[in-house]
Amino acid sequence: MKILVTGGAGYIGSHTCVELLNANYDAVVLDNLSNSSEKSLIRVKNITGKSLEFYKADLLNKKQIMTVFSDHKIDAVIHFAGLKAVGESVSMPLKYFHNNIIGTLNLLDVMNDFNVKNIVFSSSATVYGDPASLPITENFPLCATNPYGRTKLMIEEILQDIYRSDRNWNIALLRYFNPVGAHKSGEIGEDPFGIPNNLAPYISQVAVGLLPRVSIFGNNYDTPDGTGVRDYIHVVDLALGHLKTLPKLFTNPGLVVYNLGTGFGYSVLEMIKGFEAASGKTIPYKIVDKRPGDIAACWADPSKAETDLGWKADKTLSDMCKDAWNWQKKNPKGYR
Ligand code: NAD
Ligand code: UFG
């Protein structure tokens, strides 16, 4: 089976490529490297001892996508490629709509032309907005609170419409909670350009001495210690969720939706303590104002994925922190 992985050089994509190759799938990666380095793919090859095909190509360029489909008989697409920085999407909405929506439409058009109608889409827990209760199940109401989230919601709706019009499509919408950690080898991991927006890479960079302290965005939320609570999931568990989704897709299930989370929530302070234990370092922090748009707490009910796919995240917070630290320590400046 040959899988096209868009955005395969990125954080989640590179970890998924490792698991695909380990499971004897053939992988073809399409990535424009706008937020990643080709080195991640060299490391993927080193970890697995297997090769994959890489196209430095842009989803905004339909001809480039067509070349990939002309060169390979693709069985399914895992579609990771997209821009993902929430704050940037607020200041540059057109960039996000253009890249994420037009890029996806181009991909779907080419897939349709080449009669490849199996796709796994990287959606996000952000589509649940500020949930009325917890844990979140897949049938909760959906809403977007920023342009990035709106691109995820719009693409989910586009895929729903495509499925309604043509039942030959098989579509898995995977709603990720908060991916953290790295491959246990420490060879691949999260490598944000510039100052990290997300908590885990920020803490790692403080631990390794690149940044002075963590700013905790508010400590008077209605949570046990007042700091924000999220469902952090090890990126390898998340990658394995895709591996469990593919066989399901090949049973012609139509359109399916799954939460990929652990079902547990941890606070910002618990994450800092976890990283301190993993790194043996003290991680300085200060409490600052809340970040606009942040919600107090968010965690998944992941039971549907367990029942339908036989998938369950099994790595602990300690595994997530240890593996993130191992990657950061071995690669203080990421792939650079
Ligand atoms: P990432 O930025 O590391 O990977 C995305 C990849 O897509 C990058 O390698 C980038 O170069 C590539 N890309 C972007 N636009 C492209 C285009 N037009 N053509 C070709 N390649 C393009 O991000 P990630 O954390 O690995 O996220 C992967 C997917 O999962 C994204 O769609 C993201 O929105 C989604 N997601 C991520 C998180 C998270 O917290 N990391 C949470 C929920 C959902
Ligand atoms: N936080 C801090 N300081 C920081 C960064 C974050 O205190 O420097 C706090 C936030 O307030 C929040 C928690 O840490 O309580 C997690 O924040 P992240 O930015 O790491 O993650 P979010 O839950 O805000 O959002 C992430 C992605 C979204 C995605 C969402 C759900 O950025 O794109 O997870 O998957 F939609």
Notable traits:
binds nicotinamide-adenine-dinucleotide, three-stranded mixed beta sheet, seven-stranded parallel beta sheet, 14 strands, binds uridine-5'-diphosphate-4-deoxy-4-fluoro-alpha-D-galactose, 11 helices, alpha/beta, 336 residues
Can you put this structure into words, describing what you see?
The strands form 4 sheets. This protein has a 7-stranded parallel beta sheet with strand order 3-2-1-4-5-6-11, with helices on both faces. Strands 12-9-14 form a 3-stranded mixed beta sheet. Strands 7-10 form a two-stranded parallel sheet. Helices cover 40% and strands 18% of the residues. The chain is globular. With 336 residues, the chain is of the alpha/beta class. Helix 1 packs parallel to helix 2, helix 1 packs across helix 8 and helix 9 crosses helix 11. Helix 1 links the parallel strand 1 and strand 2. The chain has 11 helices and 14 strands. The model has no long low-confidence stretch (mean pLDDT 98). Bound molecules: nicotinamide-adenine-dinucleotide (NAD) and uridine-5'-diphosphate-4-deoxy-4-fluoro-alpha-D-galactose. The site of nicotinamide-adenine-dinucleotide has 27 residues, from helix 1, helix 5, strand 5 and strand 7.
